[in-house]
Each structure stands twice: as C-alpha cells, then as structure tokens.
Design a protein that fits this description.
By secondary structure, the chain is mainly beta. It has 2 domains: about 375 residues; about 150 residues. It has 6 helices and 49 strands. A hairpin with an 8-residue loop joins β41 and β42.
C-alpha cells in the first residue's frame, strides 16, 4: 500500500517540479492522460551514456549478466537463432530475482530476434529476467529496442522483454512473439512494479494455464501481466491472450496503477475477470483508452474491464470505449463486467458489435453509426488526445505490428515461414519461388500444377512421356520402360532390354547409327552390321562382300562355292582339287620362247627392243583367270622380263607390278608403266608376248651382249609362277642399225 500511495501522491506533482530528478522512491509520474516520458537524472531515456558498451552479438548480450549495473547499447540487430547458454534451455535471462539488472540498455532502434528460452520452472523470465531493485534502491532504464520472433517459456513473471520491471522505466520498446507460463505473463513485461512504460507495443500470443482450477494463476496481459503501481501510457497491444483469471488485452490486472492513452485489439479467453483492455482495475485509473477484441469467459467478462474494485483508493475509468464482443455466463458488460467500487465517467461501448445491452459501469451504449460520430463524445479532447478515424483513435499510441505467430507450430514464425499454415521445419523450396514445397501447388514452377504434373518436382512444361508410363521423361529413370535404368541403358530412349552393342562403342544397336563402327552410317552401309569401310561389292548386288553370302553372285553360297570370287555357276573343277577351273591356278606352266627379237639402233630417238614368244596359248585361260583374281583381290601380280644369264646381274630387266596391270580384258594382259617407257602386251590368242622398251639408254655393246645372252620370262600371280628360260644367238646381222636374232632350234 505504501508503494501505491507513492504513485498517487506523485500524480499530484507538476511535471516541471524539481522532484522530476529525485531519488527512485520520489520519482515523478506524469498525469494519467499525458503520456509524458519519465526522465532520470543519472540515466536519461534516449541519451546514450559516453561509457556505454556496444552489444553486437547474442553472446555479448548474454554477457551482460557479468556486469548487471553497466551501461549498454545495441550496435546492430542481434539474431539469437540457435543460441544456448550451455544448459540446453536456450538464452539465460539477464538478471534474476536476487541480482536484478540495474543498468541502462539503449537499443538504438535495433532489434533482438529469435530468442528461445525454455525454462518452465523458473520465475522472472524474459530477455531481462528482473530489471530494477524490488525495494526501489536502484533502477534500470531500457529504451528503443524491439524483441521479435521470440518463444519464451517460464513459470511466473514472464515477459517478452522483461520478466519484472521494478521501480524502473521502459520507453519506445516493442515485442513480437510468444510468451508461455503459469502466472504473471505479459507480451512485453510480466510484472510492472512501480515502473513507467510508455510508447510500447506488443503483438503475438500469451499462453497461460486455462484449466480454471487454480485461482492463484492470475494476471495475463497482452502488454503487461500485472501493472502493480506502475504507469502505462501511449502504448498498445495486438496479442491473443489465454489464461485462467485476471486477463486483459493490454494488462491482466491494474492494481494501483494508471493506464492512459492506450488500447488493445487482441482476443482474450479466460474464466473470470476477463476484459478487452484489463482483467481487473483495483484502485487504479484507466483513462482515454479503448479495446476492440472479442472477450470470452464465464464471470466478470466485458469489452474493456472485467472487474473494478477498490483497495483503499477508489478506481476510475473515464473517457474510454469498447467495441469487442464479450461472451460470458454472468456479469457480462459492454464496457465493464462488474463494478464493486469505483467510478466511471464519459465511457461508451458499441451495442451493435458487442451484442450486449447492459453494462456494469453504466456506460452509454451506442450504435456503430453513433460510435463513429465525434459528437457522441462530449468533453473528450479531440485536439490533443483523440482524433476520429472511423471510431475515435489515439494520437500518441503507436499501432502494434501484426502478431508474429507460428500458426503451424513448426518452430518457424509466420513472417519467415514459407508455408505458415503447413508445418515444414526444413523450409524446402525446390523452385525457389518463396513458397515451401509442402504448400506449393507447382513445386517445380513449370506452370503445370502438381496434381496434373507428371514430374511435379522437376520442370517439364512439355510433359513429354516417351514410354507413356505416367512419369515425364525428365524424372523417369527408365524412359524407354525396358527395365534397364537410364544411367545404365545404352539406349535410354529406345527399348532394348538385351542391351546389344555390336561394335562395343557404348551405344546399343537399336540407337546406334553406325552399328559396325566402320564410319559408314547404317542407312548407306551395304553391310551395316559388319565393318567394311571400303564398301566392296563384287557382284554389285547392294550387299557388301563382307556380309554377302554369295560374293560373286553366281547363285552358289560362299561356303559351297568352289570359286567364291569368280562367278562359275557350273562349279567345273577339272582337276578335282576343290577349286573350280574358273579360279584354279596351276603351280607351273611352261612358256615357249621361240620367236624373234628385233632391236633398233640405241642411238635412235625411239629405241625399241621387241621380242616375240610363241605358244602364249600355253598360259591359257588359267593364267588369265588367275590374273583377274589377283586384280580383284589386290594380291601381288607381276610379269618379269630379264635379259642376261640366270643368276647373274641382268643386262636389262623390267617387272610390271600389279599397279602396272592396266587390264585383263580382250583375251590379253596389258601392262604399262606410269611413264609409258615400258609397255608389255600379251595377247593369248596371238601366241606371243611383245615388249616395247623405249629409250633404254643401252649402247651397242650392251645390246650385242643382251641379244646373245639368255632370256627369262616369268609371270607371277599370287604364289604361282609361270617361267621359262632360253638361249638366244645371233641369226643375222645387218649394218648395226637393225639386227634380227632368232633363237636356235
């Protein structure tokens, strides 16, 4: 009672009095309507002390416990997400019942966010547990700070910012979060003991016991749980309050304190003494206030104050109104539920929105239309305190921000939750569109809604589905539905369960456009499954020789054809050696070299050495066929003419190699060198072979030696050689210019 008398005595003191700078027990409190700010001689609110210590981190904030009388300020926003004091219960409140915080703390308009405190058996719980000495011997000043997105749990005297504020002050302070406990709970301050709170807001929820079985579980308020001898001005609350007894949208109970120029618009749900602004007003003053939230309870339930009574000093409610709907069993009023003692003056409530026709204060019930007319409120100060904004609105009270809630109870507050109505602690957001996957109806952001999307978490606006299995190609791990998963499938888009890969190039045959890997694409490859880069096709039937089972096109399959490369449909084999006559080559064949050799003078411009050999028919068809086979197969073939003794260095020799074989046609062999210096013609029917050698550069002696020596003629086809050697002697000699020789018979 002594403290209450101090407060009300202070109300009579002029704001300009020297007592404004007196000791704590003589502190000045402004007039209940003014909303003026208390100022202390040592620690003025909003004035940053020169020796103040900067707080930049949550650990530094926690460290204030090491010096509870220091002067501090926030240097930046402080995020306490994940912070723990070391005991697994989150942040440890600054100051406690025995050793309160008695310093200054200036937030400089910065915030403290994501504070988690889980200490359900501890009293005096908040960012600051207890601030200010309970006997008034020393005070704390807290200013210009917002605590938000907090979740704070204690037993009693629990607040978002301060558990209990004693003989101290808090100005321009704000809270947004959740407070849970048993008694003395406030969104901002749990217990305001002979302290001043001004320009403050709170939003969120206050969750107390709601069983109605323990009458000691009291004082639940949106801003302050219990305002015991304290002063609250120019403040507001948007908090949903749940508890048992003495619940208010702004203050659970106002005992000997003052609440002025403040309002509440959150819902309040309790059992007894339940009000939109205050649960009870005991010897306190409520002036120039209003409440708009719905109120629910059983007894003493009202739009503004549930119960008003006196404990020495008569309480007062004046110049205030309510629009919320009260729902109760007994003592339910539009403005006041039950008044035992006290007074009311110039108060109103909205009969239309409240649905209540009576009031415990005798306040004037008005329709909504009347409540929104300024002339309904005679005597109210619309120059300094009020202004019309539909209903009357306060000029000094700040509007509280929307509550920061955790609607889906996933530990992430709604303002940071990408699915505020669906629990998703991982906050997964596949398409990074700001909507969490659990509540995003187009997870991959491809404009196809998930229920109709065949790949709901992988973008595929074309909805391509090769195997028509209901899974889009981009998310189907077996696109061709051949039971071989795409990472292992050598043809992922064409079904090939056997995974055949002829050329072992890693591409299955069904999707390989060069199955034999011979660099000739399958559509133009005459042997698409057997490598044949030369595309040889002897019989010109469109099938390459490598894959043609009848290469010579004679109707006899290769395995049964005795001449696979030369057409011989009759399969004639005279010597019964398994090789048909058309391609059979005898091991030796005598070459008769009877005939003439004619030479011309070596000095002539067109030297010519010509010999004829008869019996060329002895070479016959076999030699011709062998030569044709050799040409077709690109096997060695050569015709050698050599003058000189056998085994000795020849006087002259020439070998017509395969490259010089011009043709095997017209019943003859035709050889000539690239420079046409040597030309050899062996027409078989003429029974002779003529060799023309031009510009031999041989002198007469060499010619004489050549023409009197030996002549060896060899025809080599593959591994077979046809050869004969004869001795030539001079037959007749002329003037040296033309000499004819004949071989001895």
């Amino acid at each position: 009672m002594k403290k209450q008398l101090w407060l009300y005595a202070a109300l009579l003191i002029n704001l300009n009095s020297d007592l404004a700078h007196a000791k704590p027990q003589d502190k000045q409190t402004p007039d209940d309507d003014s909303g003026a700010v208390y100022n202390d001689s040592k620690k003025g609110i909003g004035v940053l002390p020169a020796a103040a210590l900067a707080i930049s981190t949550c650990a530094e904030l926690q460290g204030i416990n090491n010096d509870l009388s220091g002067e501090y300020y926030l240097a930046n926003n402080v995020n306490c997400a994940g912070f723990d004091a070391g005991d697994g219960n989150g942040f440890l409140p600054i100051g406690n019942e025995a050793t309160p915080f008695v310093g200054t703390f200036d937030g400089q308009e910065f915030s403290i966010s994501n504070v988690l405190i889980n200490r359900p058996t501890m009293d005096y719980v908040g960012v600051f547990g207890r601030a200010g000495a309970v006997d008034g011997s020393d005070e704390a000043i807290i200013s210009r700070v917002t605590v938000k997105r907090f979740n704070i749990t204690g037993r009693q005297f629990v607040g978002g910012l301060v558990g209990q504020l004693s003989y101290s002050s808090a100005e321009n302070v704000h809270s947004q979060g959740v407070v849970t406990g048993e008694a003395g709970l406030g969104g901002l301050v749990g217990s305001n003991l002979y302290s001043i709170i001004t320009n403050a807001t709170s939003s969120g929820s206050v969750n107390g016991d709601h069983t109605g079985t323990d009458p000691n579980k009291i004082a639940y308020g949106g801003l302050v749980g219990s305002n015991d001898g304290g002063h609250i001005s120019c403040s507001s609350s948007n908090v949903n309050v749940l508890g048992d007894y003495k619940l208010g949208g702004l203050a659970g109970e106002n005992v000997g304190g003052t609440i002025s120029q403040s309002f509440a618009n959150g819902t309040v749900d309790g059992f007894s003494e339940v009000g939109g602004l205050a649960g009870e007003n005991i010897s306190g003053t409520i002036a120039n206030c209003f409440a708009t939230g719905a109120v629910t309870g059983e007894d003493e339930v009202a739009g503004l104050v549930g119960l008003q009574d006196a404990d020495g000093v008569n309480p007062m409610i004046r110049n205030s109104y309510a629009t919320g709907k009260p729902t109760g069993v007994s003592n339910t009023g539009g403005l006041l539920g039950l008044m035992i003692k006290g007074a009311c003056a110039d108060n109103y409530y909205d009969m239309t929105t409240s649905g209540v026709a009576t009031d415990g204060c005798g306040a004037g019930g008005r329709t909504t239309a009347q409540m929104q007319m300024q002339n309904t409120y005679p005597g109210w100060d619309f120059n300094n305190t009020w202004q019309m904004n539909g209903y009357p609105d306060l000029r000094c009270a700040p509007t509280p921000p929307p509550p920061i809630l955790d609607t889906d109870n996933d530990g992430i507050y709604d303002d940071e939750d990408n699915c505020p109505l669906d629990a998703n602690t991982d906050q997964a957001d596949l398409d990074k569109d700001g909507l969490g996957d659990v509540c995003d109806n187009d997870d991959d952001n491809d404009t196809i809604l998930d229920p109709a999307d065949n790949c709901p978490i992988t973008p595929n606006p074309d909805q391509a589905d090769l195997d028509k299995d209901g899974f889009g190609n981009v998310c189907d791990d077996d696109d061709d539905n051949d039971k071989v998963l795409d990472p292992s499938d050598n043809c992922p888009l064409i079904a090939n369960p056997d995974q055949a890969d002829l050329d072992k190039d890693g591409l299955g045959d069904v999707c390989d456009d060069d199955d034999d890997n011979d660099k000739v694409l399958d559509p133009v490859d005459n042997c698409p499954l057997i490598a044949n880069p030369d595309q040889a096709d002897l019989d010109k039937d469109g099938l390459g020789d490598s894959c043609d089972d009848d290469v010579d096109g004679d109707g006899i399959v290769n395995g049964q054809d005795n001449c696979q490369l030369i057409a011989n449909p009759d399969q004639k084999d005279s010597d019964a050696d398994g090789t048909g006559d058309a391609c059979d080559t005898p091991e030796s064949l005598a070459v008769q070299t009877t005939g003439l050799i004619v030479t011309r003078n070596a000095q002539a411009n067109d030297d010519l050495a010509q010999f004829k050999m008869s019996s060329m028919q002895d070479l016959g068809a076999a030699a011709k066929a062998a030569a044709a086979t050799a040409k077709a197969n690109k096997t060695p073939l050569a015709l050698t003419i050599q003058f000189g003794a056998t085994g000795a260095t020849p006087i002259y020799s020439y070998t017509a190699i395969a490259a010089d074989l011009a043709s095997v046609a017209g019943n003859r062999l035709l050889f000539h060198s690239a420079d046409k210096k040597v030309q050899i013609t062996c027409p078989f029917s003429a029974a002779r072979c003529v060799v023309n050698i031009r510009k031999t550069d041989l002198d007469n002696a060499q010619l004489d030696a050549l023409l009197t020596g030996e002549l060896t003629v060899s025809l080599q086809v593959g591994v077979s050689t046809y050869s004969n050697t004869g001795t030539w002697k001079q037959f007749n000699s002329g003037n040296g210019k033309v000499t004819t020789y004949r071989k001895n018979k």
